[in-house]
From TrEMBL:
Species of the source: Turnera subulata
Entry keyword Thylakoid: no
GO CC, alphabetical: cytoplasm
UniProt name for this protein: Eukaryotic peptide chain release factor GTP-binding subunit
Signal peptide interval: none
Domain Tr-type G: 31-260
UniProt lineage: Eukaryota, Viridiplantae, Streptophyta, Embryophyta, Tracheophyta
Annotated GO biological process: nuclear-transcribed mRNA catabolic process, deadenylation-dependent decay
GO molecular function per UniProt: GTP binding; GTPase activity; translation release factor activity
Keywords, comma-separated and alphabetical: Cytoplasm, GTP-binding, Methylation, Nucleotide-binding, Phosphoprotein, Protein biosynthesis, Repeat
Amino acid sequence: MEEELRLLQIDNPTPAQIATSLDEIEEENKKRHLSVVLIGHVDAGKSTVGGQILFLTGQVDDRTIQKYEKEAKEKSRESWYMAYIMDTNEEERAKGKTVEVGRAAFETEKTRFTILDSPGHKSYVPNMISAASQADVGVLVISAREGEFEAGYKRGGQTREHTQLAKTFGVSKLIVVINKMDDPTVNWSQQRYEEIKKEMRGFLKRSGYNVSKDIQVLPISGLLGTNMKTRMDRGVCSWWEGPSLFEALDAVEVPPPDPSGPFRMPISGKYKDMGTVVMGKVESGTVTEGDSLLVMPNNTPVKVLAVYCGEKKVRRAGPAENLAIRLSGIDDTDIFFGFVLSSVANPIGAVTEFVAQLKIHELPDKFVFSAGYKAILHIHSIVEECEIAELMHQIDMETKQPIPKKVYSVNNGALVICRIQVNNLICIEKFEDIRQLGRFSLRTKDKTVAIGIVIGLPLHQ
Ligand SMILES: Nc1nc2c(ncn2[C@@H]2O[C@H](COP(=O)(O)OP(=O)(O)OP(=O)(O)O)[C@@H](O)[C@H]2O)c(=O)[nH]1
Ligand SMILES: *[C@@H]1O[C@H](CO)[C@@H](O)[C@H](O)[C@H]1NC(C)=O
Ligand SMILES: *[C@@H]1O[C@H](CO)[C@@H](O)[C@H](O)[C@H]1NC(C)=O
Ligand SMILES: [Mg+2]
């Protein structure tokens, strides 16, 4: 009976088999995916731009907008209703400031986008960095309103700090949107636009961007949605002949993720079900049913029995997919969160120390950052106690060059290179190799002390 069934399936594929082959076809035709982080000074309009994108792509209806208008008015924040689409918690709405990174998704002709709306306030810099280190492209939002550009751009303003941090944490392309062009102090003035553009281009060049290749500047109104989805209305602004924000985003060129890289999937969940099922997001490479892999750092050889992408069984899956993988060869009790499912030919290294570039954010009272400092390391799905073994040198934020003198301790705001040690073997990568496995935060008492990237690993372990 069973034999018969199997024969039947060859001639008449089951719905599951059809779905599997359709998935593979779909995989191949799929639009590229880009993550976009919105950065910039507090109140520049990041959440408004994010909310407007969702509105323009039909993801928020008029009734909801009216509800937000009413709620914003009740909180004496009339103009904040568009930002309310992204700022969803009570504190954010009451104060008109983003705290948590907001997420949203939309599509253009060639691209599926994930938007990460970061907070501009300086207290939340770690959240901004965490968003930036996940992004391919940055949209730097600048307010053209009288006094606001100046306030954001001066020392201590977040326009410069965010730009430099975005560059440090891997955002290689920037679209600079000069926002609030509709404001009565601006009235779509070309002179104001050019003034800001000139200043920004000089600064971006000094921060290490190639302004002709990596930077695009354009004027918008996030509040009114002007020059965002469709090109500029000539009745509103006669001098702008360039692209809209959506066009500019669609045209950004970034190297696609490499499906032929070494397979890496940090394990963030597991259960027992006809073998051991592990869950996680593929950060590099491709997995196919039947593959032999290693569970690291304990070097256990395993075999892939089945791959599930969401609810669907697939034969093969590549980078950025969230998967559940059924394995044979390992017991679920031998797997811990933070372990990495890895290729055999090119396995991920397991280390107890690494060299990092760190931005010190907020030290506990009366503490300085020096060798011997202890914190909790959070890197991909790993949570592990660590100690600073050595401060190597401090980096000048603007020039990105090491400061040529011995450093023993640093304070908040410093950018430093240091050596970090942990007690147990951990599997990580250099940030430049696989970003998501090479960026981390250091925390003490639930506060982010520093954010960093892995820049060096020991050669032999
Ligand atoms: N006139 C005008 N006002 C705008 C525009 N974009 C944003 N605003 C206003 O600027 C204020 C701040 O907007 P948000 O979107 O909350 O700014 P944000 O950059 O997200 O601020 P943080 O999350 O605190 O960093 C609100 O009052 C908005 O209505 C615009 O294009 N034109
Ligand atoms: C912008 O236009 C408004 C209304 O037309 C006017 O009241 C305001 O003075 C203008 N502002 C500038 C800077 O030209
Ligand atoms: C910037 O990019 C352009 C275009 O790719 C290139 O011709 C130019 O040499 C680059 N400039 C710098 C300073 O790298
Ligand atoms: Mg915001």
